[in-house]
Specification:
The protein has a single domain, classed as MetI-like fold (Orthogonal Bundle), CATH 1.10.3720.10. The protein is about 75% helix and about 0% strand. The termini are far apart. It is mainly α. The radius of gyration is 21 Å and the shape is globular.
């Protein structure tokens, strides 16, 4: 094991300092795809979570159970479904998204949607209901009450979004099937190869040190992002009045 890890660490530093445009394009492309996919997912996931977390209606438990079940959907199965839809003979073939960066981003948006919906819904349901009751007692409108609840669960929402980003950042099935792992000649949109597909290809070629180097870089980025969010949350939590301040701001300073 050590005879693979040590050369892999050396190879990782060599790649980082090499200035290879294709290597850096692969990293930027991976971050771009996961970032755009996560932002797209947030557009519809957070409103859905607000409805599920703040309102009661018939059939709510079925919808929640469905999103919870979809968290573990195999990425290869989703990638195959998207391939059939985006291929030239597919229903969405006219969009020409197959083997493109944006096609992978849309696939990752669908992949991380259940994670964000389920986590944010749970955060809203476990939030302090006394805050909601107090807001209504003070005469706050339904919209301002919901904004107060969202502010109260802001960091839980951020952690859910981070979890979604990390899920997309480390997935392989969609990136391989929808993207095709095409070289980009050192440009962001010229290819579709990302870190995970690079790892898979290097393993197939028997270049275990290079594959491990890509894996180290992948893990390092994920850990750095998670630690950054945790650090910001810790700094915010040290402000004792943060929760009360967000509450009063949401009520318009009443």
């Amino acid at each position: 094991m050590a005879d693979i890890i040590v050369p892999a660490i050396q190879e990782a530093f060599k790649l980082i300092t090499s200035g290879d445009p294709e290597f850096y394009a692969t990293i930027y492309r991976t971050i771009y795809i996961s970032g755009v996919g996560t932002l797209l997912a947030c557009v519809w996931s957070i409103p859905i979570a607000m409805v599920l977390g703040l309102y009661n209606f018939r059939g709510k438990w079925i919808i929640k159970g469905l999103f919870n079940a979809l968290i573990g959907v195999p990425t290869v199965a989703l990638g195959l479904l998207l391939y059939l839809l985006l291929s030239r003979q597919g229903e969405l073939g006219s969009l020409h998204l197959l083997y493109t960066v944006n096609g992978i981003a849309i696939g990752q948006a669908i992949l991380v949607t259940p994670i964000i919906v389920s986590f944010v819904t749970k955060a809203l349901e476990t939030a302090d209901m006394q805050l909601r009751d107090l807001a209504k007692t003070l005469g706050a409108s339904g919209l301002r009450t919901n904004l107060a609840m969202m502010r109260e669960t802001f960091w839980s929402t951020m952690l859910a979004v981070t979890a979604g980003f990390n899920r997309g950042f480390g997935e392989l099935g969609i990136a391989t099937i929808v993207g095709g792992s095409l070289l980009g000649n050192g440009t962001l949109f010229g290819g579709t190869r990302v870190l995970t597909t690079s790892i898979a290809l290097e393993i197939n070629f028997g270049n275990f040190s290079v594959a491990m180097a890509f894996a180290i870089i992948l893990i390092a980025i994920v850990i750095a992002l998670a630690l950054t969010i945790s650090l910001i949350e810790r700094v915010r939590n040290e402000d004792v009045g943060w929760g009360k301040l967000s509450y009063w701001i949401s009520l318009g300073g009443r």
